[in-house]
Structure formats: C-alpha cells, structure tokens
Amino acid sequence: MSKESIKEIDSRLKMAEDAEREQLMKVYAPDDRAGVQKLLEKYRKQKEKLLAEKERLAKMRQYEEKYADHAFICGIDEVGRGPLAGPVVAGAVILPKECEILYINDSKKLSAAKRDELYDEIMDKAVAVGLGMASPARIDEINILQATYEAMRQAIGNLKVKPDLLLNDAVTIPEVVIPQVPIIKGDAKSVSIAAASIVAKVTRDRLMEEYDKVLPDMDSRPTKVMDQQNISKRFRRLDRHRSTEEVLSDTSYKNPSEQVEDQIQKAIGE
C-alpha cells in the first residue's frame, strides 16, 4: 500500500481536532520523509504557540478570577484622548465567565486587521456592549478628562445588562455608584478591559473614516500621525479639531461635520 502524499497528510492534520491531531502526529512520526517531518515540526510549533497564548490569557484573567463572585464584570476603556481631531469614544464590555478570545490584547498592540477580527468576535460573544462618545465641542466645553468620564458613564448606561463590578483602565469614574477597580495599564492586564479597548478603538477608527468621506482633503485617518504645524499649514480650523490645540483660526470655512453625526449616533446606539 502506497504512503499518503505529504499534501494528504497536511490536509488530515489541518482538519483534525486537537486530540486527534496529537494521535496522527504520533502515527506519522516514523515517516522519515523530509516533507513529513517538516509538517510535524510546523504543527508542533503551532501547538507551542497556542499553549503560550493560553498561558498569557490566563494571566489576563487574574482580575476576572479575583472578583469571580460578581455575576457581571464590565471592562471600561477609552480612545481618543491624545489626537488633535475627533471624539473621545469609550467602550464598556461584559464578557461571559470563562470566555476565551485568543489574542485579545491592548488595542494599541494589535494591527488594524487583527482589531477588526477581534471586534467581530467580541461583539458575537459578549453578554453586553455599551459605547459612549464626547464630541470635540464637548471636550472643549468641559475639558478632556471630564469628557472622558462622561463618555464612560454613557457607555455604562448603554449596556443592556447592568454590571455589578467595573474594571477600569487606570481611572475611577465620578458619579458612578457601581463598585470600581481602577487598574494601571488595565488594557494589557484584563481581558474585559482589553475587549473594551478594542471595541472603542475600532468604533472611533470607523467614525474617523466617515470624516474622511465627508472631508477627503483632511487626513483624519486614525493611523496617520500629523504634527500640529503641518495641520496648521494645510488645513482650516474644523470643529472636529479641538480648540485647545493651536490650529489655524480661519473660521470662514463652513464645517460639514454634521453629516457624520448620524454615523456617530448609530455607532453608539448599536
């Protein structure tokens, strides 16, 4: 009986569940063909990578396990405090207990493509997701810190399930009666906060892309970093720029940003 081709072996290993793959790898181990041994090494490395990821996730569940007596633990995070343009967006996410989302992490440590992929998985698996936003005008009115708190309170209020504990990235949110645990660099230490970070980041990035559709000459793409001097040279002042930044004072330009307000409200309401 002829041996299976390397392509056939690869197909069997790829389709097999973990336990079955382990058995198949033992079966194929005596096969001295270089191609087969290369395949087995590939799957061994995949297994090692998966085990390392599961260990990392276990560490990121330390706070969820510490407060496991709470039924609904909610992670809170925000994005948009640093950029010149656009809103501050806050995310609030309640994940099921024992929920596993591989490669979840601080949104800043992930590629845009990976964030999008994880966003879909979070939205699919989460018990509840809430979003909140403070516009540039609101930021100028009450300052960036207070606007961040306001967006976070809005995100909590938009949850369909009331949490009984909040895990926050670094801050304690005023005027919130739910018990809170502020965690420094929490988006890298808690799966719940990491999930909130990803949801907030993807939501804000998509809103900024909507701005680009309305104002294609204004580069507001989230991954594009533009210094203040270049913005001042190239663009008029828009109300999506925060007035606390020294951009051009030309206010003769009629701001069309109202055209994306429906997109903002839709994102918050979803």
Helix content, binned percent: 40-55%
Q: Round the Cα radius of gyration to an integer and report it.
A: 23 Å
Order of the strands making up the biggest sheet: 3-2-1-4-5
Write down the overall mean pLDDT: 84
Write down the domain tally: 2
Number of strands: 5
What is the fold-level CATH name, i.e. the topology of the largest domain?
A: Nucleotidyltransferase, domain 5
Could you state the CATH homologous superfamily of the largest domain?
Ribonuclease H-like superfamily/Ribonuclease H
The CATH class designation of the largest domain is Alpha Beta
Q: Tell me, what's the shape? A: elongated
Taken in chain order, the helices and strands follow as HHHHEEHEHHEEHHH
Strand residues, percent? 5-15%
CATH architecture of the largest domain: 2-Layer Sandwich
Alpha carbon gap, first and last residue? 59 Å
Quickly count the helices: 10
Largest sheet: 5 strands, mixed
Find the structural class using helix and strand composition.
Answer: alpha/beta
Low-pLDDT segments: 220-237, 244-260
